[in-house]
Amino acid sequence: MATQEGRLLLLIDDEPAQSRLVTALAAREGWRTIVVETCEEAHEALTSKEGVQIAAVLLDQWVPGEDACDFIRNLKSAWPNLPVMMLTASTSPLLAVEAMRAGATDYLIKPIAPERLLSALRSATRREAPKDELQPMTEKLSQVLDFDAMVGTAAPFRTALAKAATAARGHGHVLVEGETGTGKEMLLRAMHNGSTRAKAPMRLVNCAGLPGNSLESLLFGHEKGAFPGAFDKQVGLLQHCDGGTLMLDEIDRMDLAIQERLAETLETGIVRPTGATHGFRIDVRVFGASDLELDEPVEAGEFSAALRDKLSATRIYLPPLRERLGDIPALTRYFLSRIAEQPGLKHHSIADSGLSLLEAYDWPGNVRQLQAVLFRAAVFCDGEALTAESFPQLSELLGDNPLRGESRARGVGVLLYTNDGNLRPLEEIEADIIRLAIGHYRGRMTEVARRLGIGRSTLYRKLSELGIDNAA
Questions:
Q1: pLDDT tens-digit series, residues 350-399
Q2: 135, 160, 258, 293: which sits with the fewest CB atoms below 10 Å from its CB?
Q3: Domain boundaries, the chain
Q4: How far apart are CA 162 and CA 225, in angstroms?
Q5: What whole-number distance in Å separates Cα of residue 116 and Cα of residue 406?
Q6: DSSP for 86-130?
Q7: What is the pTM assigned to this prediction?
Q8: What phi and psi values does residue 329 have, to the nearest 5 degrees?
Q9: Is 155-317 a domain of CATH 3.40.50.2300?
């Protein structure tokens, strides 16, 4: 078993440039990387004296040797607890399904985003893991880019959408705050598509995925020879997106000096590339997204007050999923319908046992994590409906949580579905609702009848027909 101090990553890849990149990125998290070019060499490395220290495997789909999925299957058979991640240029959900069924714990798309790789490595070796179904696998489903895809009826969420829809039709900058996985990027894209600049240039930048100097050149541009290594002139995205929209995700991770420079650019409307003797007037709308509410880092001197204020023409807060648990049934059925559209997968309903389990979890990864969990469950489910048994790792996490027996969002649950995914008979559902009403109104039958919208005599007739005790 690999120790925390001696973590080794086995990279199976025959592309030298990509191998160097992965090795450098992994080193940021304290990993040492062993690079081999074929599956045969990988077997030799795993069975060597040093192989016991290997904590994770990253496999490029196109390495020579055997089929990647067959290799993963054989690897998991011999080392069942070893996390295996697949790296591929394909965005095909079918390949993701095949890799997961073979035993892959994650699936990364080339070119590799630095934060995505580091997140995958952290998840793969988390001490309380492997909780495979909780891995972030949102790359497998293409994003729908309109407000109709933002599912939910919770009041704070609808307020956020209403503000976003109004802002989309305007011209000011926008700041969206909320925990990771709440749907900030999706909201930004929906706003752009609903704006008057929908057909103008648009770019999205993840500020956490780039070193400060690279991000600065990407945004502002630079002249040839402006600094060592500036061999060519580069036009920055602020200039490239003139007349359009620039989206900055994880803006709270941007260096303070770049924040101040961006605030000045938005104030003056003039961008000056590094090393240039003059600037360019621009008309760019900036949408910023932050995992943190920015007031606290501003007070701590860690974020530019000027930039926060410039972006706050409209300020939107997306609530975490734990604050909108009532939306889980609708989100679940929406995601299952989207998943069913993917090659190699079929449509699944969800039984109340599964739904109650989903509602009992706090979802630290929010909507993105819910989607990933449903995707993984659908991959491995052969039946018509997902049940509590479809989420074994989630069941393990919750243990004997008393909230598992009933939904926190729905109070005392009235079960609508059987475990095979079919609706229960109307008579049974009606009986449960009447029992629920009698208990809720403490046996006051006149109030029960009024709240159910039926006459008192009708209520007593139904009690007799359904065999319900008045004191139920």
A1: 888 888 899 889 999 899 889 888 988 888 888 888 998 999 888 888 87
A2: 293
A3: 8-130, 155-317, 426-466
A4: 47
A5: 35
A6: EEES---HHHHHHHHHHT-SEEEESSPPHHHHHHHHHHHT-TT--
A7: 0.70
A8: -60, -45
A9: no
